[in-house]
Design goal:
This protein is mainly alpha-helical. It contains 15 helices and no strands.
Length: 395
Amino acid sequence: MGQARSGAWARVPAAAAAALGGGALLTSGPAAAAAGWWSLAALALAGLVALLTAVSFADLAAQSSPASVFAHVRTRLGVLPGRLAGVLACAGWTVAGATVAGAMGAYLWPARPRLAAVALVAAVLVAVLARWRPTPPARWLIFVVTMVTMLVFIVAGLAIDPVAQAVPTDPGVSGADDPTGVLTAAGVLSFGFLNADRVRSPRTAAGTVVAVAAMSGLVLWTALRQLGGPRLALSPTPLRDALAAADGAAIDPLLTLGLLVGALLSIRVLLDRAADEVADLASEGEFPAAAVPHRYLLVAIAMAGIALVADPGWAVQLAATLTLGAFAFVNSAARTLCRTDRSTWIRTGCCGLFLCVVVGVNISLAALATAVAVLGAGAAAGTVRVRRARAATPG
């Protein structure tokens, strides 16, 4: 029991740092573009979705051991739902990793952000192939660096009164306060909770989500206060621009370093998760078995390719749509748990399923159409592979 608890707590700093590292880079601009100051309400909704999903993950793991999205859903719901969930999760983690790399590339090399993004993915791949994993002390160090970076940004942003906004905030302008954009903003902000579900204990999972939501809310509020919705919506590097507006350009190197540490961890976690989905899909014949030994390389190549061609502002919408689709299947799988197998009287599976679907389909039509196309192509390929394998089996 003691070892299990210590193992759960060891994942808290890594989960929180990975979530903040990815979310802080990406979500404030697109969320502000959709809803302006209403994006703070959207963050609360995104946090609720993440909380329900994290508890569903933890409850499933308690019954069938920690596993990938594909494995949980296949075990509980059957072959076809498992296939669909696996495709969504694998694609979602891959696009998410490319998106984090692309956003961090804009901070590291503004003139060539996409090349910087490819270099980040390559650096993470080298660490994976060298079999380097952060030790528990290293996880805590990454967590501390990420948290200190966020706190420095918040303190600097709140210490200086914002200048008068020169960009008009008339209705219809991107970044104007718009309550009808809450669902879109919530979908984008859900990206900031992607790795918070990796904590296996329901209580620590809930605590991690709440902590990430609180810190993300302060970061978003600070950025909105300094830049306003319209300027924030247009910025490719919102935290850097908000810091400059607060007369804090002198500490920009510290901000960039802290963001880099969190981004590298986030990319690493997302690469691991996508590779795990590939391995589990291959174990059931849904993916070529020959690709399993090279799964990290294949996922990294896909991440680098997406980072080269996709705009991070649109890619974050696609990643959120894909992962919310996968989380809808996870919550649906959690619905099959008996009352005695759930950690709370709240029907987290039912509520999480409903919210994932409602938020996911309202992010953008382009992201939804692309996600459906990816789902259809992946599911069709898996079905063909399985049927061919059965046809080739004697008897």
